[in-house]
Amino acid sequence: MLDPGSNSELPVIPAKRYFTIGEVSDLCAVKPHVLRYWEQEFPSLKPVKRRGNRRYYQRHDVLMIRQIRNLLYEQGFTIGGARQRLEGEARSEGAATPISLIREMRVELEEVLELLNP
After folding, report:
1. Fewer CB in 10 Å around end: N or C, the chain?
2. Closest by alpha carbon to 111, among 23, 54, 34, 103?
3. How is the chain split into domains, by residue range?
4. H or E segment at 56?
5. What residues are paired with 56 via a beta bridge?
6. pLDDT < 70 stretches in the chain
7. How far is Cα 37 from Cα 20, in angstroms, rounded to an integer?
8. What residues does 55 pair with on adjacent strands?
9. Residues in contact with 10: Cβ distance below 8 Å, sequence separation at least 6, in sequence order
């Protein structure tokens, strides 16, 4: 999902459940108004909104923002291209997950069967 070497200059994400827009701005080296704009352009980026319409980002949101930043600023994608790339990755991950899960379950069931049958 995210190339770890591409964001080596960014700070480590602390072990917290929620982050404010200011914290995410610092963690991802992106201004808050850019984050609000990206929310409109990338449908998968949806922070939790609480009292007073304040945004609270979760860890997966921060990772996605870093990935978007990498695609736009370091790899030179356009916003439309980055959106397509993220949607394509989500589709390929979603399609592969059930198949791999079934294979893992099958292997585990075969191991249990071997334990039960002497």
Report:
1. C
2. 103
3. 4-93
4. strand 54-56
5. 48
6. 1-8, 90-98, 100
7. 16
8. 49
9. 27, 28, 29, 66
* Dihedral angle of Cα 30, 4, 93, 83, to the nearest 10 degrees: 30
Dist CA 48 CA 117 (whole Å): 50
| Reported pTM | 0.70
Cβ-count burial 73-101 (b if 16+ within 10 Å, e if not): eeeebeeeebbeebeeeeeeeeeeeeeee
Check if CATH label 1.10.1270.20 holds for domain 4-93. no
Q: CA 76 → CA 29, 40, 93, distances in Å?
A: 17, 20, 23
